[in-house]
């Protein structure tokens, strides 16, 4: 769908309007570092304008290689890259209106915060008054205008992350690339900055391309996610689509706890797996996926179990993890194990070795090929 055109958006005039010319289109991108080191194996991908788009996958899957190609830091061996209508496959990095926030932040220790934020503007030849004005406005937008005179070594990790973000935004790029910029932060700060990044992206209407290996981070922040594996894209979709309707077992496992089992047999009334039988009508497939949250855990002799019908799995607690708001149990059942999550409502915990019954909502069961 064609988006309406919009003017360049700066922090002080941001109106949450997506920029029409910032969609990214990748076709057949291939990159190898020697015969046995294929980083990108023919990637086709469309990144919508004005979206928060995440490249997700394990270490070595190709997500950072893909980000570097978009940035112009690496040139693919084959394929094309368009930003809007412009083919930038062979265009140098400094001639693309794209900025990158790196995992290490790459800030200049000999410059104060204002000097770091304004560095790119000076390199582009802007006059001092313009630089000072745009640095002040961007710093206020990122809420670090009180830090402009400080040295980098006087800042906390979260403050350095904000400086790196301000330095990237002050040049008003069409696309902002973020290479795991939150990975070095503690959990609490990381959670707060996730929300801040999302709010900034929404207000600017800018295209953000974010790299992470953390599926929880991807689900919280993204409009769309591309899951990569060995240089290929396994699936692209919204976080809900990838979690609830994964395309294959790799995506199912990577998007969270996956009780994923091969289907051993099937008939008109149900199917059989290693943990037992599921009654119901299921699509033809090779595997069945049961997310932890579609099961409830009960004592083996609880009244809820007797009235639950056919889809009850009996087993024993093998492990339990206390996660504050919830308990996570590993239950041995049949020839395998299942993970189940139980909301912590002060109801007490099941002991290791306790006999339990897992009651399942089969409407949440997903069948997969592959």
Automatic annotation (TrEMBL):
One of its GO terms (cellular component) is ATP-binding cassette (ABC) transporter complex. The keyword ATP-binding applies. Residues 24-255 form the ABC transporter domain. Keywords: ATP-binding, Nucleotide-binding, Transport. GO terms for molecular function: ABC-type transporter activity; ATP binding; ATP hydrolysis activity. It comes from the Bacteria. PANTHER family: SPERMIDINE/PUTRESCINE IMPORT ATP-BINDING PROTEIN POTA, SPERMIDINE_PUTRESCINE IMPORT ATP-BINDING PROTEIN POTA. This is ABC transporter.
């Amino acid at each position: 769908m064609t988006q309406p055109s919009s003017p360049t958006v700066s922090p002080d005039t941001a109106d949450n309007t997506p920029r029409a010319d910032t969609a990214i289109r990748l076709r057949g991108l291939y990159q190898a570092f020697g015969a046995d080191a294929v980083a990108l194996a023919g990637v086709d991908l469309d990144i919508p304008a004005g979206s928060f788009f995440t490249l997700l996958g394990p270490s070595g899957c190709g997500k950072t290689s893909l980000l570097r190609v978009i940035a112009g830091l690496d040139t693919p061996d084959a394929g094309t890259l368009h930003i809007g209508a412009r083919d930038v496959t062979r265009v140098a990095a400094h001639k693309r209106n794209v900025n990158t926030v790196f995992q290490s932040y790459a800030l200049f220790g000999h410059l104060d915060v204002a000097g770091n934020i304004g560095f790119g503007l000076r390199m582009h030849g802007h006059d001092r008054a313009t630089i000072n004005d745009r640095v002040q406005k961007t710093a206020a937008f990122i809420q670090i205008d009180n830090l402009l005179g400080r040295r980098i070594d006087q800042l906390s990790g979260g403050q350095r992350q904000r400086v790196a973000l301000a330095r990237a935004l002050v040049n008003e790029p069409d696309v902002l690339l973020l290479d795991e910029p939150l990975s070095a932060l503690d959990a609490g700060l990381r959670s707060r900055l996730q929300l801040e990044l999302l709010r900034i992206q929404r207000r600017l209407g800018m295209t953000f391309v974010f790299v992470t290996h953390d599926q929880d981070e991807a689900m919280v922040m993204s409009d769309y996610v591309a899951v990569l594996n060995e240089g290929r894209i396994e699936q692209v979709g919204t976080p809900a689509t990838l979690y609830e309707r994964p395309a294959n077992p790799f995506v199912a496992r990577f998007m969270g706890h996956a009780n994923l089992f091969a289907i051993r047999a099937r008939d008109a009334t149900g199917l059989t797996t290693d943990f037992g039988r599921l009654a119901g009508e299921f699509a033809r497939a090779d595997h069945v996926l049961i997310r932890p949250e579609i099961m409830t855990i009960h004592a083996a002799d609880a009244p809820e179990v007797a009235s639950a019908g056919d889809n009850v799995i009996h087993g024993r607690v093998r492990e339990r993890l206390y996660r504050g708001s919830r308990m996570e149990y590993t239950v041995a059942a049949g020839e395998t194990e299942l993970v189940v999550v139980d909301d912590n409502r002060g109801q007490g915990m099941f002991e290791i070795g306790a006999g339990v019954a897992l009651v399942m909502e089969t409407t949440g069961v997903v069948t997969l090929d592959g």
